[in-house]
Amino acid sequence: MIAATLARPVAIAPAKTSAFYAAFVISLVLVSVPVKNFAYIVPVVYLLYQLLRGNRRLVMRVLAALSAVALVSGICLISAGDDMQVNVPGMVLALLTYLPIFIVACHPPVLSLSDQDIRRMQTTCAWFVIVQSLIGFVQFAISRNPDTVCGTFGLLDFRAGAITIAQVYYTFTLFCMLLFLFLDAKRRLVQVAIAIGLISCVLAQSGHQTIFFMASLGAVALTRLKRPKIVFGSLTAIVAIALLVQCFYPETFGLAREWERKVFDQDSPKRLAVEGGLSVLENPKNLLLGTGLGQFSSRAALMTSNDYLTFELPPMLVGKSTYYSQYIEPAMNRFNDYGEGSAIYKPYCSLLSVIVETGVLGTLFLTTLFGLHLYRNARLIRSADAWVSLSGMLVCVGMLFFALCCTIENYAEFAQALFLPALLYVAVTSRAKTRVQERATAAGAATFRSLRSLQLLGPNALAPNGDRSLSADIARTSRGTTPQDHPN
Fold first, then answer.
1. 89 touches 316 (CB < 8 A)
2. How many Cβ atoms sit within 10 Å of the Cβ of residue 4?
3. Is residue 235 assigned to a domain?
4. Are 91 and 23 members of one domain?
């Protein structure tokens, strides 16, 4: 019975597997819809679908987390003082804009995922990357403007010929999908998708993402020196990206040297926003709990200001906090005066927004949560299973890439860019966990079978090293005695 238990594989639930894959495909299609801000409802659709398929555990976790955060933010708004204007619509909207983060943090492992399911998802992602990249090539051919290369994310944005944030969503999603495809880079379809995807990302010229992707891949790859093939493959990808950048936009690396000036220059909008954030945190309550979500520089605060979107919101959805009016609004005006659409200049980023709006306690909690995920995934790198080891490495690359991007823009609230990579994160970490369990189960079953064989041979059977004591001890144990009961 014990041997049968040890040999039993991890239970597979086809219904849950198909539910996750179906939810992923639905999310992929909806995220690709070329309607501004439509992607913010995709996480809601995902949760509703999971609820209908019986996954109440995820939904209840997310609702509990949202309720806790809403409670703390509500306390912050109530305690702001009579002379302070608060942005209630901004707080409510922030619960929606940060929903992908809540989902990935609360998502239980999908233990039913198999290698075939991962391969199926990789095939889907490969075709997605190919189709989106080809659309991007057409957009560039028509407009000759790299900022309009955004696939279906901004399908017809090239007609305006202006900078569009859909380009940022597009490249971030593709970069993360390429990491997922690296897990099966020996397949011809995947190789084609990786090559076309890299060209498309470079062609879109999202400079900070390209550099951060190369830096993240290189930094994590250097921890794999004991596996030369992994290091060589990573360095090959980095060199290929660098050559593509040098071919299409040779000025990119030179422009990167100006980032420091754009951030720290006396007139930099981002510096004004950071200095404003430090002023806000001088208040003890703000330092501890923050201003509350949607009150400073988060995307929710920007959207509800009614000055950020290209269309006007209904009056009931409009709000500006005193903190936003005092610090972010002047910085936004400075940004508009600069006449440059570079994300480096923008007076906001997720790092600043999280620190100011959630305070020390919220920042420490999120940092600890991120660190625990990073530590858990880093441990996978040491696995003897090559697939698990590579998945741990690539997940760490993706996490580092995301963290670096959060120093530039409000990436933590980019549902269109973040949600598909979040689901891929859940899929890869879930499968890595089950593979570790399956490997341990198989090893335990093999060990038990070996010990059982020795028992059947009897106490005179020789152990592998010629010592009879091991087999004798096993035989005594099977009779309910110990070596002390029968001294040699």
1. yes
2. 9
3. yes
4. yes
* Residue whose token pair is 């080809």: 134
pLDDT at 454: 63
Domain identity same for 469 and 353: no
Query: What are the DSSP calls for 454-480, one per residue?
Result: HHHH-TTSPPTTS-SHHHHHHHHHHTT
Would you say residue 351 lies in a domain?
yes
Q: What is the rounded distance in angstroms from the CA atom of residue 62 to the CA atom of residue 281? A: 29
Residue at 274 is within a domain: no
Residues 156, 148: contact at Cβ < 8 Å? no
Residue 332 lies in a domain: no
Same domain, 397 and 257: yes
User: Coil, strand, or helix at residue 159?
Assistant: helix
Domain of residue 256, residue span:
12-261+343-371+382-431
Of 43, 28, 114, the C-alpha closest to 413 is 43
> What does the block give as tokens for 68?
């806790």
**Residue type for 422, please?**
A
The neighbour count for residue 481, using CB atoms within 10 Å, is 12
Cβ neighbours around 427 below 10 Å, total: 23
Residue 186 neighbours by CB distance under 10 Å: 6
Q: Determine the 3-state secondary structure of 365 from DSSP.
A: helix
Q: pLDDT (tens digit, 9 = 90+) per residue, 281-337?
A: 999 999 999 999 999 999 999 999 998 888 888 999 999 999 999 999 999 988 888
Higher-confidence residue: 34 or 338? Answer: 34
In three-state secondary structure terms, 30 is: helix
Q: Which of 4-13, 188-197, 229-238, 440-449 has the lowest mean pLDDT?
A: 4-13
| Same-domain pairing of 366 and 469 | no
Q: What pLDDT is stored for residue 169 in this prediction?
A: 94
- Check whether residue 219 and residue 347 sit in a common domain: yes
Q: What CA–CA distance (Å, rounded) separates 177 from 130?
A: 11
Instruction: Output the six-digit token pair for 42.
Output: 């995709």
Joined tokens for residue 300: 């929710």
